[in-house]
Request: fold
Amino acid sequence: MQSMRMNYYHPYPKPELVVGLKPHSNASRISILKQVNGVDGLQIRKDGVWFPVKLQLESFIVNVGDVLDILSNGAFNSLEHRATVNAENSKMSLAMFFNPKFEAYVGPSPSLVSEENPSKFRRILMEDYVKELFSGKLDGKTF
Reply:
């Protein structure tokens, strides 16, 4: 299952007072982000500190999502990130998300689970995972 979202962030004279998109991690296997007009604003959280992502023109950002985190039993971690606004320029981005179909079960790959590396996630139907995701508030890591 694939989906796409176009984001538009208005400029705001005091960007420190607003958030373009609250902190979250993507629920997908992977997501691909393109900053359309070259205005920065993406930040990632590492060890509790927010870092700006410096974009290069003509580049894409590929994020590991929660589903890949689950499938890999934590070998690939999904990133918590947010979008900020700019004081002078509007910002546009295009995000593409790639997910398993709703009828698929999502859980750690059996080859990545052992006594030394127990399962870090429960197995769940993708449809139920999406329902859980959208029943909660968007604030921080989703799973």
About this structure: The radius of gyration is 16 Å. The beta strands are 2-9, 21-24, 30-35, 42-46, 49-52, 61-64, 81-83, 91-98, 105-106, 124-125. The chain has a mean pLDDT of 91. Residues 126-135 form the longest helix (10 residues).
